[in-house]
Write a structure and sequence with these properties.
It is a single chain. With 184 residues, the chain is mainly alpha-helical. Helix content is 45%, strand content 0%. It has five helices and no strands. It is flat, with a radius of gyration of 46 Å.
Length: 184
């Protein structure tokens, strides 16, 4: 067919009539029965099997997979097959091949580093606890000052810049002993 010739289109009736005709012909033709080939799985008797003790990697294990073979014999043959060294080599890419039941002692340098980190964490918690106590004390002093100012009326009348802040009267929290001094 030339590329320049226009493509011939069929009318829908022609297509449907051809389809219908082919469908009728397919129904009228007899179905050919295919003969089933005799395979080891369809045989009536199980195949003759070699002894399990003599099996190796080159042995034929297909006979042990026959449906008529006893399940315990099949399992014994497969167990023998998978005990071969070929199937018991780790590839090294498996992430779970290490023996994690044996614990190694932690190296001394790592223990020192962990102790140092623990000291830093404890010192930080102590500083936060002291800061919280100071905030609570400051809030208590402000509450008492406000309660005392309402009664006497003297502190409330003074301007804000003449009142001493309570936070300056409280000392800064002490530096932890295990911390090295930092240059300023």
């Amino acid at each position: 067919m030339n590329d320049q010739e226009p493509k011939k289109t069929e009318a829908p009736e022609e297509f449907l009539s051809r389809w219908s005709r082919r469908k009728k012909e397919a129904r009228e033709q007899p179905v050919a029965v295919k003969p089933v080939a005799e395979t080891p799985a369809t045989q009536a008797q199980p195949p003759v099997l070699p002894p399990v003790e003599g099996l190796n990697m080159e042995s034929d294990f297909r006979g042990f997979l026959h449906p008529k073979v006893d399940e315990s014999l099949r399992r014994a043959a497969l167990k023998k097959l998978f005990h071969e060294p070929h199937f018991n080599v780790m590839d090294g890419l498996d992430i779970y091949i290490d023996d994690y039941s044996i614990s190694d002692p932690i190296p001394e340098a790592m223990l020192k580093q962990m102790k140092h980190a623990q000291d830093i964490i404890v010192a930080g918690e102590e500083r936060r606890a002291e800061a919280k106590k100071l905030e609570e004390a400051e809030a208590e002093q402000q509450r008492l000052a406000a309660a005392g100012g309402e009664e006497s009326g003297t502190e409330a009348a003074l301007p804000a810049e003449t009142q001493e802040p309570v936070a300056e009267a409280i000392a800064e929290p002490p530096e932890p002993h295990n911390k090295s001094p930092r240059p300023v």
